[in-house]
Structure formats: structure tokens, C-alpha cells
Design brief:
The protein is an all-alpha fold and 424 residues long. Among the domains are: 2-33, no CATH class; 308-393, no CATH class. Helix content is 50%, strand content 2%. The protein has helices spanning 2-15, 21-33, 107-118, 127-145, 153-165, 171-182, 193-202, 204-218, 236-250, 254-266, 270-280, 285-301, 310-326, 334-346, 350-359, 371-377, and strands spanning 380-381, 390-391, 402-403, 421-422. Strands 1-2 form a two-stranded antiparallel ribbon. It has a two-stranded antiparallel sheet with strand order 3-4. Strand 1 and strand 2 form a beta hairpin.
Amino acid sequence: MRQDFAAASLRLGSTTPRLPVLCLSVLLALMSQASPAQAVTRAIPGAPIQAPNTSNGQQAPVQPAGVARPGTIQPAGSSVAPPPIKPSGQPGSAAPKLMDPDENDTDAERIRKLEATALTNAKRGSAAERLAARTSWLLGLLLLHGEHAPVDRTQAQKWFERAKALNEPMGNAGLAWCEIDGCSGPPAPRNARPYLGPLKSANPGLSLFLDWSLQERMAPVHGAGGMGGAQAPHSSPEAQRMQLLQQAAQAGNASAINELGLGNVAASRYELAMQQFTTASKRSPAAASNAKLLSVRIEQAQQPDNSKSKNDRAEDWFAQARRYHRGDGVPSNYTEAIRFYQMAAAAGYQPARRMLELIYSRPAPGGSVNIAWMRQLASMDVTAEGAILSFSTQPTPLLFVRDQTPLYEFIPQEWRKDRSVGQR
């Protein structure tokens, strides 16, 4: 029986494909249990396997038996990619709402409440930490400007440092200004540069203005050049500083806009200056004050006065020269001062001639105007013979001003006490 089955298997193997292993095992088991009469197996020749054809007559590639072509694996869940997760506490996060001052609290109580919020030990990146960082920035501003507390520049710098440590980008502005103007030590404008890069993404206008400020602090002082008083052409560093100031103004920085207005007042471009003061007045008390003062000056200048004699006009020119010389109601401008002195002297006004003689009696090396000597002459009385070197009283007129610092505009309105307008 077993020999017949083996022979049949050989014959089947020559005409049929190889049976799977599992089927062969089952067949052997059944044969082992069958009787000799039941174990007769007939070999049936199988049909030949035809290779599949494609429509163009070429054979399609044969896939191995039992192997399925795997499909593309799709991720579980939604087929739409989720938006990227943004870490909390970064500069792009919405600024938290600061505490409003309580009308029933004293200034000391208001500061204590702010300090308690600023010193909160919150989870990193949480809303509470962002509030603590923003409150630290506010405390630095209040102590820097003397709002609700005496001016304490050293403590202001410490709060700016905490604000920066808690990822408040405006903390860089406070630390930069402390280096430019000096908070806990002498001014060191060059040390402010590392803070300007991180600040630029948060407030580009302020970053540009602080860059202009530090370059102005490091630039040498220039006065009127030559006997004629004509202003020397701008050097490359001066042009670069002016470009920075204009870019800061274009970015909306109120201090930069006010600064351009002051320059236009000195150049007698009153209409343009008025536009700039008005633009900045909503955020800069100094610009608002300048706009009011300039409107009075423009009104006075528009009033005709044809009754003045030549000597009267010479006195007016001399008075204008003294204003530019002293910074009396206008920014100090020695070039304009000398120009008006020369106009008055050409009209025969003797005090103007005496002042020009004094100015050019002590020139700086190279023949230019001696700036230190000009400052001394600003407080000398030259209107009478024999009293050339007597000191006159300091002028106390209304002046065009700057805000106490370029950071003042960032104090929330509800925390201001309108004490910040002043000359600097």
C-alpha cells in the first residue's frame, strides 16, 4: 500500500504542481488510518497552468504565491496633520492683562501688590509666569520714572533683569536704557548692543531708537564750522544716525518722531515739526507740550510788524541768536546762533559784534568753533560796554522738551501721574 502511494505521488509530482505542506500532511494522516481497500488513490492529471496575458500581448509579472503587495500604511486618527504646538510664554503670546491701580490704595500699597504679583513662583511658560514677567517690566518703568514711588534706578534695573529672566522681551529695552543712561553705574552705551537684537522682534521702533541713542552718546560733539557759520556737510556716521532715527520714526516710535520735530524746529521748519509733534502727542506728553508751544510761536511769527526800524530788526536777530545759543525755547544750535549774530552785527548792532569777537577769540584746534567756550559764552552778558564777562541769570522760559526717557510711552495710561514731561 505504501509503495503504491509513493509511486502515485511521484506520478502526481510530474504532472501537477507541488501540494502545499499542510494538505500533504492531512492526506498522509488519512492514508495511515485507512484500510488497504480504501487506500487506492487514482492520479488525475492536472490542467496546465496558463500564464496570464495582458491586453497588449505581453506577459504580466508573476507575483510569488502567498505574498500580497502591502498597501501604503496610513497613520491612525485624522488624516489632516495637526497644527504645530506653540510653547506658551513666548514673545508671540498675547500680553497678559496687568493689574489696575486701586483708587483706595496708597502708592506704597500699589507697589506692594505689584511686587507680590511679580514675585509669584509660577510654572514655567504658564499664564501666571507671563503676568509676573509683565508686572516686573511695569515695576521697572514706575521706579525709573518716579511713578507711584520715588525714582530708584538701581531697583528699576533689577526689575528689568527679572522681566528678561522670565522671557519678557521688553525687559531688554529697560536693560539697554540702563546701559545707555546709567542706572546702577556710569553710562556704558556700548554694553547696550546685546539687548537690541532680542528687542527688535518685539518692538523694532524702540530698538532702532535705542540704537540711535547709544550712537549719539558715543559720537563726538560737533559745532559750527568756520568763520562763516555754515553747517558742515553730514559725515557718513552722522548720515547713518539720521537714517536710524528716521527708521525708528517710520516704525512708529514716539520719541523718534518727537526728536525729528525738535530738529525741524531748530531748522525753522515749523509746519513739519508741528505735524510730527501732533503725531507723537498721543503717546508722548513731551510731544504734546511741544505742539502747544510751537502753535504759539507760529501764531506770533505770522503777525506782521512793518513798523520796526533797522535797529529793531537787529535787536530781534540778536535775541534770536541768544535763544539758539542758550537753548532758550529751542534746542541749542550754535550754527544758527552764529548766523543770527552775524546778521545783527552786519546791521551795526554792537553786542552782536562783541559776541562774535569772543567766540572767535578761542578757536578749537583746526580753527573750528570751540564748543566748551561757546557753552561758557551762553551765560555771559555782552549788551553793555565794560560788562562783557559778567554772567547773566539763567533763562526760565517755556522750552521744547523730550520725555524723561524713551521708555515712558510704555507706561499704561492708568499708571501715569503726568509728572514725566521735562528736559533731558
